[in-house]
Design a protein that fits this description.
The complex is a heterodimer of chains A (248) and B (385). With 248 residues, chain A is an alpha/beta fold. Chain A is built from six helices and 13 strands. Chain A has a nine-stranded mixed β-sheet, sandwiched between helices. In chain A, helix 2 packs antiparallel against helix 5 and helix 3 crosses helix 4. In chain B, helix 9 runs antiparallel to helix 11. Chain B folds into three domains: 114 residues, Butyryl-Coa Dehydrogenase, subunit A, domain 1 (Orthogonal Bundle); 104 residues, Butyryl-CoA Dehydrogenase, subunit A, domain 2 (Beta Barrel); 153 residues, Up-down Bundle (Butyryl-CoA Dehydrogenase, subunit A, domain 3). The relative contact order of chain B is 0.11. Classes of the chains: A alpha/beta (248), B alpha+beta (385). At the A-B interface, helix 2 and helix 5 of A face helix 1 of B. Bound molecules: flavin-adenine dinucleotide. The site of flavin-adenine dinucleotide has 22 residues of chain B, from strand 1, strand 3 and helix 11.
């Protein structure tokens, strides 16, 4: 059964390169390169695998900025067929983001909506639930395995201490975890085609809803002290002494 | 001006190759060197991802991105394993690209898809025991036979020869030279020894012997007698593409040097605080950046005109001398630990040395650059633009 799959993707700064300003403790995000977020890659990878098994078409939606076309091209190179970039993202506002995304999702006939279970930058984890609620579609969350069986979605989901397998009718919203797969490296042919796939860019009209106020994003002060013990003879007692003193 | 900044597509390619190298190549680079083993599985994966056929059109299983893309792949491979870069170059550029540029439709259709996918490994055979720098003085010769040619002679120092499935072979046909496509299964072809080398270990180098090896007419590469042109245009492309391995290697050398210079303390402060070390870093970096610009300029020029000897020879002349210099200085910065075979720096130096020998030696490159400049001046009364 051919499926229409929608993947929600997010573009964030390259977290690997993120540095904390040592004097203020705040993250320095300016001038960092933008990337397709890792969990979004897991979602895209899963969409591609589902399509490979069942046939169909993959759409990606990215609520971002004018710069988000590069994230969309990364998703194209991994196998997404058509993209929608919605500009106007202003910061973490899950209520607004879910409304913007749901509006676009509604406009595309679909069987499955895939997204990461939370974004690597805000960690709210609110979007899967909100989107499922707005659309009125069932939610399977934190999936580590997805199968499409007899026109229904079956997901194995990672809970706190156990895994649960559940099934639902389609259309459904499924959030994935990082464990679900290993995102593929885009092959050269797909990289080349990425520039030629249809990308629709539009601005959202939905205004700010309840923007989250950032009370503090200052990294806790941690002083890393590097002590080198050169005298092997004195060994462990010296190390123990240093730890005892430091933890006082 | 050379375009040294990647286009969007090129930077996606570079990221993909870099991620591949980090995951699949870097972790085994030391093993490849130590055990002198070519990583066939990794090579096949490169085929799957489309890295092997970037200069070959889609209809034959490639992607037609071009020589810049091939350079980018070499640069990223060279950073982690120059030897894999060398075997990649021999396969994708020396062998496969020559077959594409000079092959008949039948030859292209039959062999390119297998080479693009990595199912087959390719090799190019020019050097002989008695003709290296003076390659055109080869002794291997082909005699006309019924429906084909019989080739007799031998080749040596051939990259990938110990495991290749397909070979571009040059041989004398009367007074001229011609190119042929030989297969590992051809009767009369046998492999000699695999050399135990100082560097570029894991990129197998070996000998080949041809004892009346029969090659049917439909496996001549280009017309009979045009071998010299095939060699010359191929050499220019090869020189530029192989140069990219050495900018990757140089980047790794500088990275390791800066890392060590900032952490190794002597006399109470990091050695990087010493001006003699800073001078090394300054020259290393400047030569690296210069090499990069030269490579990206040369690849654009030689893509347009494969007969551009000046651009190709000056590019590889400078880039490989710079890489050897950088690797040597990196080892010096690492001091005694650099000389220990567990350090990656000593491998960089051993690998870098090949840069001044393969694809024409430094001496031959100097000769070519000098000769081209004079020839140009006599003809046009000025330096080339
Ligand atoms: C690891 C490795 C991989 C290789 N892969 C391939 C391959 O895939 N295919 C292939 O065909 N070949 C390959 N070669 C061969 C390589 O191209 C030759 O080694 C190179 O061209 C030099 O030839 P030679 O070794 O015979 O040295 P020679 O030509 O004997 O040179 C010896 C010395 O004399 C100098 N010299 C020679 N002639 C002159 C001159 N006219 N003026 C000034 N100095 C001169 C040289 O610069 C050198 O210093 C490979 C070699 C190595 C080491």
């Amino acid at each position: 059964m051919a499926l229409n799959i929608i993947v929600l993707i997010k573009q964030i700064v390259d977290i690997d390169l993120l540095k904390v300003n040592p004097s203020t403790g705040s993250p320095e995000v300016q001038n960092l390169p933008l990337r397709l977020e890792n969990l979004s890659k897991n979602a895209v990878e899963e969409a591609v695998r589902i399509k490979e098994k069942n046939g169909g078409k993959i759409y990606a939606i990215c609520f971002g900025t004018e710069k988000s076309s590069s994230a969309m091209k990364e998703a194209f190179a991994m196998g997404v067929d058509e993209g929608f970039v919605i500009t106007g993202y202003q910061g973490n506002d899950p209520a607004r983001t879910s409304m913007v995304l749901a509006e676009k999702i509604r406009a595309i006939p679909h069987d499955i909506v895939l997204l990461g279970n939370q974004s690597a930058e805000s960690y709210t984890g609110l979007l899967p639930g909100k989107i499922s609620r707005i659309l009125g579609e069932r939610l399977l969350s934190n999936a580590i395995k997805i199968e499409i069986v007899n026109g229904r979605a079956r997901a194995t989901m990672a809970m706190e201490s156990e895994t649960v397998t559940a099934e639902t009718q389609l259309p459904a919203v499924i959030s994935v975890t990082q464990e679900i797969n290993e995102p593929r490296l885009p092959p050269v042919m797909q990289i080349l085609q990425a520039g030629r796939k249809p990308m629709n860019v539009s601005a959202t009209g939905i205004k700010e809803v309840t923007p989250n106020k950032i009370i503090s994003n200052i990294a806790p002060k941690s002083e890393r002290r590097k002590i080198v013990f050169e005298d092997i003879e004195k060994g462990i007692p010296e190390v123990a002494k240093a730890i005892r003193e430091a933890s006082r | 001006m050379p375009q040294t900044v990647d286009t969007e597509t090129e930077s996606m390619l570079r990221e993909s190759v870099r991620a591949f190298v980090k995951k699949e190549v870097a972790p085994i680079a030391k093993k490849i060197d130590r055990e002198d083993q070519f990583p066939v599985e990794v090579f096949r994966k490169m085929g799957k991802l489309g890295f092997l056929g970037v200069t070959i059109p889609e209809e034959y299983g490639g992607s037609a991105m071009g020589y810049r893309a091939q350079g980018i792949i070499e640069e990223e491979l060279g950073y982690a394993s120059a030897s894999l870069g060398l075997s990649y170059g021999a396969h994708s550029n020396l062998c496969m690209d020559s077959i594409y540029r000079n092959g008949s439709p039948e030859i292209r259709e039959t062999y390119l898809p297998k080479l693009c996918s990595g199912e087959w490994i390719g090799s190019l055979c020019l050097t002989e025991p008695e003709s290296g720098s003076d390659a055109l003085a080869m002794k291997t010769h082909a005699e006309k036979a019924d429906g084909g040619w019989k080739i007799t002679g031998s080749k040596t120092l051939i990259t990938n020869a110990p495991l290749a499935d397909i070979f571009v072979v040059y041989a004398k046909t009367g007074d001229s030279l011609s190119a042929f496509v030989a297969l590992a299964t051809d009767s009369g072809l046998s492999r000699g020894k695999k050399f135990d080398k100082m560097g570029m270990r894991g990129s197998p180098t070996g000998e080949l012997f041809f004892d009346s090896m029969y090659i049917p007419d439909n496996r001549t590469l280009g017309a009979i007698g045009v071998g010299k042109d095939i060699i010359m245009s191929g050499l220019n492309l090869e020189r530029v593409i192989l140069s990219f391995i050495f900018i990757g290697l140089a980047r790794r050398g500088i990275e390791m040097s800066v890392q060590y210079a900032s952490s190794r303390k002597q006399g109470g402060k990091p050695i990087g605080d010493r001006e003699l070390i800073q001078e090394k870093l300054a020259y290393m970096y400047t030569r690296y950046e210069t090499s990069k610009m030269l490579c990206y300029r040369a690849v654009d020029e030689v893509s347009k005109d494969p007969m551009n000897v000046l651009s190709a020879a000056s590019c590889i002349l400078y880039t490989t001398e710079a890489a050897e210099y950088i690797a040597r200085e990196a080892l010096q910065i690492w001091g005694g630990m650099g000389y220990v075979s567990d350090s990656e720096v000593e491998r960089l130096l051993r690998d870098a040395v090949l840069g001044q020998i393969g694809a024409g030696t430094t001496e031959i490159r100097k000769k070519l650059v000098g000769h081209e400049l004079i020839k140009n001046y006599v003809k046009n009364g000025r330096l080339p633009e």
